[in-house]
Amino acid sequence: MKTVLLSAAVSLFCALFGTPLAIKVFTRRGYGQEIRSDGPQGHLSKRGTPTMGGTVIITASLAGYLVGHVATGDAMSPSGLLVLFLMTGLGLVGFADDFIKLYMQRSLGLRSGAKLAGQAIVGGIFAVLAIRFPDGLDITPASTHLSFYADFGPPIGIGFFVVWVILMVSGTSNAVNLTDGLDGLATGAAILALAAYMIIGIWQLRNDCTVYFAQACYPIRDPQDLAIVAATVMGACIGFLWWNAPPAKIFMGDTGSLALGGVLAGLAITTHTELLLFLLGGLFVIITLSVVIQVSSFKLTGKRVFRMAPLQHHFELAGWAETTIVVRFWIIAGICVALGLGIFYVG
Asked: What phi and psi values does residue 38 have, to the nearest 5 degrees?
């Protein structure tokens, strides 16, 4: 627990005091956000706000994880390092997207095919490595079984597992990216989901099959380190949210949204709670579904269900204040997290 608290505190400190420095540097270099002309007109005033703040979240998380382990003497684990690799790898894909936007002075960065290819490569590498590194009981960071609050059913095989992981990683990172449309919205929702995974990791540690076998134990490799990763990234997000809350002084950009989606997917896979992520990240699912419904309806009928997608922009155009939308959506995210944790506990 000392490492959990120390790592989270260090990452929070680094993000809280590192973000103002990033704001100054990015402003000086002209790394300002481009705004879509067809979006809500209220967003035009945000043009030029520094972006790529996700670099702060990633850097603070890595620093917190490293300092926490060095200071307490706890060993870093394959599971924790793999989740951080997934976060950093997807952050680099997002960084490329953000950099192209800034360099070309437009609101569109990487082409969708190139972005998906980057996500697939990083996710595929993670998947292959996650079924390696067995411990003394032959437990690897991930399992080729599907999972809800624990593994179920027969193994799906390595090939299908790699495809499943790529779909999870791409879907989750894109879902967080779609949610990152209002000041602080994605950051706050991610904090709630990460808090849930910190709790899940600690609970799995206290009921760890590698310590003692019991009917309700969890055969998870490195549950403590996964709790540390969740707490560390959560701390970085809290520090960043201080400056990202409405009105935002900096945006996380695709660098941050893809990285946070990667962390959530990685934690779901390594804690064997893959399908439970649909509940814990319920807000991300709802917002993604709004885009799917909007696009499908327009292609099939030529009509739009919402005034604009993703869903948060529908309410903007309906006259809701941005802060009202953010807080109410945080409440929805909290309800989803509470429901997910309740099911995990009962299960």
From this structure: -95, 10
Residue 139 corresponds to which tokens in the numbers above?
Answer: 């437990």
Phi, psi angles (nearest 5°) of residue 180 = -80, 65
Range(s) of the domain holding residue 235: 2-278
Please report the pLDDT score of residue 31 as a whole number: 72
Report, as ranges of residue numbers, the positions in the chain whose pLDDT lies below 70. Answer: 32-46, 48, 105-108, 211-215
Neighbours of 182 (CB within 10 A): 22
- Collapsed DSSP state (helix, strand, coil) of residue 75: coil
Q: Could you tell me the CA-to-CA distances from 46 to 33, 50, 56, 157 in Å, in that order?
A: 7, 9, 20, 48
> What Cα–Cα distance (Å) separates residue 36 from each residue in 33, 195, 248, 323?
10, 33, 17, 20
For residue 41, give the DSSP letter.
Answer: G
d(CA 165, CA 146): 10
Inside any domain, residue 227? yes
pLDDT at position 44 is: 52
- How far apart are alpha carbons 31 and 28 in whole angstroms? 8
pLDDT in tens, 315-334: 999 999 999 999 999 999 99
Q: Looking at the domain assignment, is residue 334 inside a domain? A: no
Tell whether 105 is covered by a domain.
Answer: yes
CA distance 324 to 330: 10
pLDDT, position 101:
82
Closest C-alpha among 274, 54, 84 to residue 172:
274
Alpha-carbon distance of 256 to 186, in angstroms, equals 10
The answer to whether position 252 is within a domain reads yes
For the entire predicted model, the pTM comes to: 0.94
Burial class from Cβ neighbours inside 10 Å (0-12, 13-18, 19+) for residue 141 reads: buried
Count of domains observed in the chain:
1
Q: Write out the two tokens for 294.
A: 């909007």
